[in-house]
Amino acid sequence: xxxxxxGESLKGTLKKIANAAHVDSKLIKVVVRDxxxxxxQADVNVKLVLELSKKIEKRALSEKPPAGMSNREHVIxxxxxxxxxxxxxxxxxQIKKQIIMMVGLYGQGKTTTCGKLATYFKxxxxxxxxxxxxxxxxxxxxxxxxxxDQVKIPFYGDKxxxxxxxxxxxxxxxxxxxxxxxxxxTSGRHKLEDDLIDEMKDIFKATKPTxxxxxxxxxxxQQAGPQAKAFDEAVGITxxxxxxxxxxxxxxxxxxxxxxxxxxxxxIGVGEHATDxxxxxxxxxxxxxxxxxxxxxxxxxxxxSLKGKDAEKTARRIMSGKFTLHDMYDQMDMLSGMGSxxxxxxxxPGGFPGKGKIKxxxxxxxxxxxxxxxxxxxxxxDEEMNDPSIVRASRIKRIARGAGVENKNVKELxxxxxxxxxxxxxxxxxxxxxxxLMKRLQF
Length: 443
Ligand SMILES: Nc1nc2c(ncn2[C@@H]2O[C@H](COP(=O)(O)OP(=O)(O)OP(=O)(O)O)[C@@H](O)[C@H]2O)c(=O)[nH]1
Ligand SMILES: [Mg+2]
Fold this sequence. Notes:
This protein is of the alpha/beta class. It has helices at about 5-20, 25-40, 45-60, 70-85, 110-125, 140-150, 165-175, 195-205, 225-235, 250-260, 280-290, 290-300, 300-320, 325-335, 340-345, 365-380, 380-385, 395-405, 405-425, 430-440, and strands spanning about 100-105, 130-135, 155, 180-185, 210-215, 240-245, 265-270, 275-280.
């Protein structure tokens, strides 16, 4: 986990809240001071920290907890919400044909990130390729080639050519038909100087990239902000990749400063390997940092009633026919474990699709199938998960490729989903059935 120290201090603070006899203004003052200290140690900007702590204090003292939520839970929620807020909005790269140009100063992680991005898109079923547009550093060609070979991604480069634009143009020609996502590596410089800007602009004209991603080493701390701003003014960036978050205590500074610039952080690098790469989602990031799981168990009692409410809401949504693949995915998570799986199976008229009434010895096969379904869903986009009806032949092919399965497996998932959806909808008019389902699932 990145930002371990910050995470530990914040967790300690939240535990203070969870274990306190009363949540009063004295406790809130202590908590706010703890949070300030933790954020400053993680290099978050002083002004930002002061603003944030003022907001937390004001909300914690003035807002009443919503029904069903304890005071403690409420204060923890406020801390969480305000921390998410300073990280800005989430943005995702689209899963479609595109050209991505990497830019950034020397040694920030551009070349490594090319391999990580390619791996990400390959998993989503697209065909990525990389082009070695760094013609200045002698070892740059070999480095990208090695990375590409390792993750089995097509590579183009020309060791003898010293004109970056020529190399990139040849590469674009080569991959015109054979690749969906073309990732162009470029060279770094010590400073954002005129010749770097000119070369970036020339490559930009030659490639017309969909995305211009700025790569910044998180160890630069709050300097990430001015760096992002300067690049944005020079060439216009569409997203930031913050690398090496695994190796710095200054990550808090880089994260908060970069997100303030306007260009959103799209990915974070958390190690040297191609898979040490995460989509950046502020809410998910903070939840993990705070160890919301641990805190939840501390607050079990307050949580129980909330959880019940959430589950009930989900159940009602599902039964009204609004059942998406996201819901199904969550359900599968909930259902991993034979006991609960057989409960659901009993509920479904005829058991699982294509299986007839489910037998115990069939359970293993079903569990296997469900885990395969989850891999397939991991290769789908949010849009497809929300509205699976848009998944037709070409998308099926892409998804199957990404998940490493056959087209028929994807079709099987869709069929399974449709049966589930119909079954859920069928329950909407049947109160007795609804009650039974709730009870069985112990909502
Ligand atoms: N721990 C860690 N190391 C990283 C990460 N990303 C990159 N690195 C390492 O950082 C060093 C520099 O990475 P490169 O990808 O070569 O950086 P670059 O921006 O292409 O550098 P130039 O082409 O010289 O400008 C390499 O040793 C990488 O292995 C990361 O997320 N975590
Ligand atoms: Mg490089």
